[in-house]
Amino acid sequence: MIIFGWRVVFFTLTRGTFHCPDCGGDREYRRRQGRNFFTLFFIPVIPLTKTGGEFIECDTCRGRWNPGVLNVPTTAQLAHMPAMLLRLAIAQVLRSGDYTNAAARARAVGVVQQAGDAGYDDAGLTADLGRPFEEVRVEMGNAASALAPEARESILRAAAEIALIDGQLSVSEEETLSAVGADLQLTRVQVTGVISMARQESGH
Ligand SMILES: [Zn+2]
Q: By its UniProt entry, which InterPro entries does this protein fall under (predicted)?
């Protein structure tokens, strides 16, 4: 007697680290997809159709999620986010003014180092200054939503302070600060408040 049937076999496509909503922390995951197999004596022998879409499976709790779950930043990514956002914000503002100003550049590097990116240096700043404007805006928008409003305000504050090192804000510096504030998902009122506080402190 021949025993045959069908069975779903799951394949692992890729692996990585994600924030598991059930475990509440960073966990290893497998990106998987199921496929129907024709079985002979319970052994899958012939692959048939793919079943459903890809999903993310937590190695720890075995919970399954839609791949959209990978858009949530991991705890490790969050820890680096303030420094990364600072870099982007500062580079945007610096290049709208005199980005050759040595004092402004030194301060920019120092602020990013303080925020946790200890390896940041003038060469890193030059690289950030050369990145495409639109690419940076998208990256900032994605990262900003994960931070508290106070953290986003302090990032804009640091950028404003650096823009003020070489004197009064130029029109283009002010416009860039407003755009960066918007990318950081701050309101107009918050942006105006942060800039005027930075102005008062710098005396310009
Ligand atoms: Zn889990």
A: TerB-like
Task: Domain ranges for the chain, please list them.
Answer: 4-71, 75-202
Q: Ligand 1 centre and the CA of 30: distance in Å? A: 11
Ion ligand 1 contact residues with beta carbon within 5 A: 20, 22-23, 27, 58, 60-61, 63
Whether the model pTM is above 0.70 = no
Q: Which of 161, 154, 195 is nearest to 175 (CA)?
A: 195
pLDDT tens figures, 79-93:
777 888 889 999 999
Give the pLDDT score at 150: 82
CA distance to 15, 23, 124, 132, 150, per residue, from 128 (Å) = 30, 36, 6, 9, 24
